[in-house]
Amino acid sequence: MRAGTTATGPRPFPSSGLLHPAVLVAVVLLVLNDHVFKARWPSWWTGKLSDVAGLAMFPVLLQALWEQAFQRRARDFRPSFAVMVGAVVLTGLCFAATKLSPAAGDAWRWALGALQWPFFALRAWLSGVRIPPVRATAHTVDITDLLTLPALFIPLWLGWRRAREHVARIPAREESSLPP
Known about the structure:
mainly alpha; 2 strands
């Protein structure tokens, strides 16, 4: 048997939830939608598609960051469903706030702009042009985006399955023939 596997399959490791096919599809869909589909076919649906893809992957990203920050030893690692529940709740609350409150939407626009800035700066530097300032991204406060909140059941289900599968892999303790 290879290292990192058990009799029932690969052993989970910190951030391994990001490698689930559903999460990878959500990331690809989010990138394609934001950079291709919205430009070619701008509509109500392309906006909702980004929201669904983002809601499906972002809690898993938060859980992965938590796991990386608080891992002790990879050998003793156990996925936590409670962490996933917290990530889903936090994602849902922040998403709802940005869709209902113009102030929260503006905070999101600037935060996302700040996260994107290093990539724009690197591209400008490599091209030999002036490095641009941090710019806010486009954001629409739209209450109908709340219709996409059920997409949070995807990471919740993935987190539950991941934690449950790990528990099923823990071998039962063998009874010792030695007296206590």
